[in-house]
Design a protein that fits this description.
By secondary structure, the chain is α+β, with helices and mostly antiparallel strands. Helix content is 38%, strand content 20%.
């Protein structure tokens, strides 16, 4: 290969890289704009901190989120993790339901901890070495000069 061919190949790889970067940037920007268009008053969202609430208003990058009756907080749009849709059946509907789920999960973990996972002792496997326990060594008694 001569230098001209190598240069052309390098520029072609660079052009493909630049094109792919540009295309992915456009896709990411379009997805962000589409997500922002769904931030309308009345929509329920979950923030990255795990706070659920209803959008009261949107001012540019600031969302006014009602998290309880007459309790409104301001967050940036980047703090929105996802929109809560009506078909989102996995999310708890109330604090009581969330506590019941947490208690059930804790009981399941506790039951798992109480299960005996010990390997029963029996005949040694082929090639397994069973050595008797050696008695603990006592330190040698020091002799004193008499």
């Amino acid at each position: 290969m001569d230098n001209n061919t190598l240069t052309i190949i390098m520029f072609a790889v660079l052009a493909v890289f630049v094109f792919l970067t540009w295309r992915n940037g456009r896709k990411r920007k379009a997805a962000a704009e589409e997500a922002k268009s769904r931030f309308v008053p009345g929509a329920e969202i979950m923030t990255t901190a795990g706070i659920y609430g209803t959008i009261k208003s949107v001012d540019g990058d600031i969302i006014h989120l009602e998290i309880a009756p007459k309790t409104v907080i301001r967050i940036v749009t980047g703090a929105v993790l996802r929109l809560v849709t009506p078909d989102d059946t996995d999310a708890p509907k109330s604090v009581e339901e969330a506590m019941a789920r947490a208690n059930a999960e804790e009981a399941a973990r506790e039951a798992e901890l109480n299960v005996d996972h010990a390997i029963p002792l029996g005949e040694p496997e082929f090639g397994e070495r069973i050595e008797p326990k050696k008695p603990a060594r006592r330190p040698a008694a020091k002799k004193t000069a008499e």
